[in-house]
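Researcher: I've been going back and forth with a colleague about how Lysozyme might be arranged in three dimensions. Neither of us has a model we trust, so I'd like an independent prediction. The organism is Halpernia humi, in case that matters for your notes. Sequence below.
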Amino acid sequence: MAVLKFKSKGVEVKKLQQNLKDLGYKIAVDGDFGNGTKSVVIRFQKDNNLSPDGIVGSNTQSVIDFLLAENPIYGIDISHHNGAINFNKINWEIIKFVFCKASQGKTFKDNMLHSYFSELKRLNIFRGVYHFMTFKDVSASNQVNNFLNCGVDFTENGVLPPVLDLEWQQSPALNNYIMQNKSTCIQKAKDWLTKVEAATGRIPIIYTANSFWRDYFAASADFSRYPLWLASYNRNSPVIPTGWTDYKIWQFTEGGTIEGLVGNVDKNVFNGSMNDLKKLANF
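Model: Here is an independent structure prediction for Lysozyme. You can compare it with whatever you and your colleague have in mind.
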């Protein structure tokens, strides 16, 4: 294939522009590879962990082809770090689900949750919430109470199952605590999952990364009944942690960009059909 870059013109450029538009990018389809097209190409490359040089060679084109062939179901996850979001500007033809941070540890509740969630409900978008687990000096029961007190109705149509975020903590000392107390931390996660399932009637999802699971959770295989939301920032098929055979959701970048949202955002792809997503969301 021809390499497309700044000042390229013609049918191939027009096809590239249409492909990027089909993937949700705002771009003029005019056959002219100008500054606008170069800017969108760089954004696409950053979103997909490619070298952001603004040149469409074989690597960039292969990712475009892959995304178009797979017809993926995309989602994002957000928190107060994303600030004010113009939900009316998001391309909901591309983004089909959103997870919001609800809580962390014993007392922290995300102050943007209710604003985000009410907008998503207004727009009838599949939506869910997650709890970031703290492992030291906080019981599972206290964290369950904090999460459930966020006021999300998990029986409502369009609401995805609760999520437990199991990952690196905010300091090396806290990560070292997990390393030195693996069995205690694994049991704390099990207790949270069991109690939340009993309270909501929904089987929770586990969010984690393979390297965290391997190093800190001793590659535990005791969680296989819970759907896996896997963080893996590369375009190759991610390595599945011990205990699972596949993922339900793949978070493939933390540096995505979308219209309506300032700065970077985590982007995800759902492993299944639209009917599968609807079923997961009580729809």
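Researcher: What would you highlight for our discussion?
Model: I'd start with this: The chain has nine helices and nine strands. After that, consider the following. Residues 11-70 form a domain with the Muramoyl-pentapeptide Carboxypeptidase; domain 1 fold (CATH 1.10.101.10).
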